[in-house]
From TrEMBL, chain A:
GO terms for cellular component: cytoplasm; protein kinase CK2 complex; UTP-C complex. The lineage of its organism: Eukaryota, Fungi, Dikarya, Ascomycota, Pezizomycotina. GO terms for molecular function: protein kinase regulator activity. Residues 1-52, 277-318 are annotated as: Disordered. One of its GO terms (biological process) is regulation of transcription by RNA polymerase III. This is Casein kinase II subunit beta.
Automatic annotation (TrEMBL), chain B:
One of its GO terms (cellular component) is cytoplasm. Regulatory subunit of casein kinase II/CK2. As part of the kinase complex regulates the basal catalytic activity of the alpha subunit a constitutively active serine/threonine-protein kinase that phosphorylates a large number of substrates containing acidic residues C-terminal to the phosphorylated serine or threonine. This is Casein kinase II subunit beta. It comes from Aspergillus nanangensis. Tetramer composed of two alpha chains, one beta chain and one beta' chain. Tetramer of two alpha and two beta subunits. Coiled coil: none annotated. Residues 59-93, 308-357 are annotated as: Disordered.
Length: 318, 357
């Protein structure tokens, strides 16, 4: 904890006050540091209760405010996607299995992340250790966010829209989730997953574009919707139809018809397995009309028969 | 603008250099001066004449000329709260009544008028050429979709009527529409670009390369990324085209037809490396949106129909260019191809004969 690092010399001058006040602040402190809300609150996180209490010498009672590494990391610019990893999670060696080979200066980095770092290092070394600490935090973060508590924290952030909104017009600003395309670090940067169109996008800010995708991992967002299936949004069949002077463009429309066929095939396939797939538009009549319109266009070329649909299915089989 | 201190900047170029107006092309004055190009705009834009004068940097004209326009402008003046009976009106009075607040009305009218002219201009030959230059310089940004590999996008509107929706970006690689990332464009009207422009642009320049750009700075994180990616998607590599693909499909060159779609370009969610099953409650449901047939010939609906039902009446429309049928296309297709090739060659021979003889 931060207070252990504090030498008496670092401590601010004594502030006169009675002991009851101090006792109170000590009691509120542990809960504050555990809370998932990361705020730069002016209440100083002081020593934890487990430490043997010093005799009530005045100079040591109210140390200057020193934020934990984690809270500092979370609140710094560009790190808005991260959530705060629990202290207990971070200190459980089992959760860190294998990371010691991945992170240089592993022990120092871990000390820094858990706020027990007390090495007098020169600037160069210090910088490297800080870099390692960031890397370590990211890798632990990837493991943490697929745990129950981590998922809950990320769901909160998701609901607040901390990860941005889907750029696709038809998704109407659906909130995104961060993810990586690889679980191995240094392979790709962070991407954003939209649950509505089930596609992945690049973050629009260059600050976020520099974050390693492995700090979120490939499994997290899928895990989130497995654990919270109710959060999965209603899917939509709406799509952009390119038009020239009001007329649909043949190439795009032909692809759209093919895609509709593909979707219908998937629906029948799933219905055969007893799963009903619902799209947002299907409760309304609009979509039906659109489909009919498409079919009518088809009809002008000839009868659209069952054989046509069957052939499409056959071709898809390849 | 420091460069043009001597000659005052024209309204058009100052408008186009405003913050948030980076997508606009500078409409040539010749285009605006041609009345044909402005057909029908008079009824859409309040204070049309003043707005047009402002755009063209013309000093307000004399009274007698203005009087001709009076009829059209009367209703606008009433909107502005001029309570004098209509009979009283003299052009001179109206000029006195024109105050600073009027100027801002004209300014906004001018912007609306310019936008509507712009919508028409960028579908004209010089306009689309100008937009091509802007497109190639990546003025409009790139597609945010990961599998589009930073494909350049075009500004389009979803409506041709002003005041309905803001400008959107059209990606030719996934044929989808995106919101501009920068919020400064969230106040630009989409009608100033129009619904037609996006598609017309790519049909005007069919050879424009919209394929993946591997030099994309977004993907450059590690040198061995490309190789590792290739090993990760152990599916049919999408970059290697299937044999027997036609050069053109439905009027679009095959290489330029939605290169960002199809197997390998569809995101599959995985948990610990295992794909999430379709049968899962939160399994994939939107794969169709980013799908494209591996064999592009499947999109030739006329050919497919003929393969099933025999040749339809040849009314000319059903012939879809030199369609190199794959194995699935039966003898009918082959029979069709022979005369088609002959017919296609004929004009060439004719012209050769013409030049020689």
């Amino acid at each position: 904890m931060s207070a252990e690092l504090l030498d008496p010399e670092d401590v601010s001058p004594p502030i006169p006050g009675d002991l009851d006040d101090l006792e109170e602040s000590h009691e509120t402190d542990p809960s504050a540091s555990d809370s998932p809300l990361i705020t730069r609150s002016p209440t100083p996180p002081i020593a934890n209760l487990d430490r043997p209490r010093r005799p009530p010498v005045y100079y040591a009672t109210l140390p200057i405010w020193k934020p934990t590494y984690k809270s500092q990391f979370i609140s710094s610019r560009g790190n808005e996607y991260f959530c705060e990893v629990d202290e207990e999670y971070l200190t459980d060696r089992f959760n860190l299995t294998g990371l010691n080979t991945e992170v240089p200066y592993y022990q120092y980095a871990l000390d820094l992340v858990t706020d027990v770092f007390d090495l007098d290092a020169d600037d160069d070394l210090r910088e490297q250790i800080e870099k390692s600490a960031r890397h370590l935090y990211g890798l632990v973060h990837a493991r943490y966010i697929v745990t129950t508590r981590g998922l809950a924290k990320m769901v909160d952030k998701y609901k607040k829209g901390d990860f941005g909104k889907c750029p696709r017009v038809m998704c109407e600003g659906h909130p995104l989730l961060p993810m990586g395309q690889h679980d191995i670090p240094n392979l790709s940067t962070v991407r954003l997953y939209c649950a509505k169109c089930e596609d992945i996008y690049n973050p629009k800010s260059s600050r976020h574009a520099a974050i390693d995708g492995a700090y979120f991992g490939t499994s997290f967002h899928s895990m989130l919707f497995q654990v919270y299936p109710a959060l999965a949004p209603e899917k939509s069949v709406r799509r952009y139809e390119p038009r020239i002077y009001g007329f649909r463009v043949h190439a795009a429309a032909a692809l759209a018809r093919w895609q509709d066929q593909y979707r219908d095939d998937m629906k029948t396939r799933l219905r055969d397995n007893g799963i009903d797939v619902k799209y947002a538009e299907e409760s309304e009549e609009d979509d039906e009309e659109d489909d009919e319109e498409d079919e009518q266009i088809y009809d002008t070329k000839g009868d659209k028969t069952a054989g046509d649909a069957a052939s499409a299915r056959m071709e898809l089989g390849r | 603008m420091s460069s043009s201190e001597g000659a005052p900047e024209s309204w058009i170029s100052s408008f186009c250099s405003l913050m948030g107006h980076e997508f606009f092309a500078e409409v040539s004055e010749d285009f605006i001066e041609d009345d044909f190009n402005l057909t029908g705009l008079q009824s859409q834009v309040p204070m049309y004449k003043e707005a047009l004068e402002m755009i063209l940097d013309v000093e307000p004209e004399d009274e007698d000329e203005e009087e001709e326009e009076e009829d059209e402008e009367e209703d606008e003046d009433e909107i502005l709260g001029d309570e004098k009976p209509a009979g009283y009106r003299r052009a001179g009075d109206r000029r006195h009544a024109r105050v600073a607040s009027d100027l801002s009305v004209i300014e906004s009218s001018a912007e609306l008028l310019y936008g509507l002219i712009h919508q028409r201009y960028i579908t004209s030959r010089p306009g689309i050429q100008q937009m091509l230059e802007k497109y190639e310089m990546q003025h409009f940004g790139v597609c945010p979709r990961v599998h589009c590999n930073g494909c350049k996008v075009l500004p389009v509107g979803r409506s041709d009527t002003p005041g309905q929706e803001t400008v959107k970006l059209f990606c030719p690689s996934c044929q989808d529409l995106f919101t501009p990332p920068n919020s400064r464009f969230h106040s630009v009207d989409g009608a100033f670009f129009g619904t037609t422009f996006g598609c017309l642009f790519f049909m005007t320049f069919p050879d424009l390369d919209i394929g993946p750009r591997l030099d994309s700075s977004l993907s450059a994180m590690s040198p061995n990324r490309a190789s590792s990616l290739a090993s990760m998607n152990n599916q049919v590599s999408p970059d290697i085209p299937m044999p027997g693909q036609p050069a053109e499909i439905n009027g679009v060159r095959t290489v330029n037809f939605c290169p960002g779609l199809g197997i390998g370009k569809v995101y599959e969610s995985r948990i610990y490396g295992f794909r999430v099953s379709e049968r899962s409650r939160s399994g994939p449901r939107m794969r169709w949106l980013r799908m494209k047939p591996t064999n592009i010939v499947e999109l030739n609906e006329a050919l497919r129909y003929e393969g099933l039902h025999g040749p339809a009446d040849n009314d000319g429309d059903t012939e879809m260019g030199p369609s190199l049928g794959s194995a699935q296309n039966s003898a009918i297709a082959k029979r069709k191809k022979a005369p088609m090739r002959r017919r296609r060659l004929n004009p060439d021979q004719m012209s050769i004969n013409g030049t020689e003889g």
